[in-house]
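TL;DR need structure tokens for one chain.
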Amino acid sequence: MKHVKEANSLLDNGDASGALGILEDILSLAPRNSEALRLKARILDGWGRFDESLQALHALSQLSSLSEAELADIEARAMEEKEAIVYSELSAEGRWYFAFPTAQVWISLYGFVGCAAFLLLSPGLLSGGAENLAELAAAFGFFVVLPWLALLVVHVTGVKRILVGLSGIRVCHRFREVNYPWSSLSKAIVEYDHDIKMGYLRLHLYTAEKGTGPTLSLDISQKRSVVKARRHFVRNVLSYMDVVCYLPRSQHADRRAGVGSDEQKLNESVPQSQESSDQNTNSAA
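>> reply
TL;DR here they are.
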């Protein structure tokens, strides 16, 4: 347990890579160490390596005498895996994934509270006569108009839904759609932060053309994911890609800036194995 505490300490200090190294050493000697399995699953999940984190949680679920925290992690993952039933829809074109922006929820809540506040304030301002008209207009703009304008911006500019189909990806905004055929996409990079507390996770899709930035970049972090059922969505997308790499933010920034050779950067990344590709294909089905 001393080594698990050391891994926990490194994780709290933002060194998830060091923590994972310690956990792997522990599990090589004690593969049924429940706390090590739980922390390993947490790190891999924060890095977007969803299949590997699920394997660690599956191994954890086979153990007896689990703590409440360990049981909670298993249950939370099981519940989130069911999100694909609620937040996606299978059609003849492929599977649609729906977006419910967090900002839209908070702005709606602010608008509801703002309308209530304006209704409470307006009688007092109206009773003051014409001199309070400016304050009344300002209150109306701040509590009522502003949240509605913000909600309109999010509604118009945000992603409405995304189709992952046999021919490619279709990203639908409110008034436009953008298609990305699989034939034009050659590589996927899952970009993460070494410090999983940062909650940073993005999916970048690239064309075969060298020296260009990603054709499509999507936020797939837990709190700000562009779509719900994000794990199912990511596995579905990656099942169509020939090359999948996992890169920390620093290495991906160097890659986009042209620092270092492509071969070196790919060797430093964590490529997806053929076994994981097969699992992704099965999950997408």
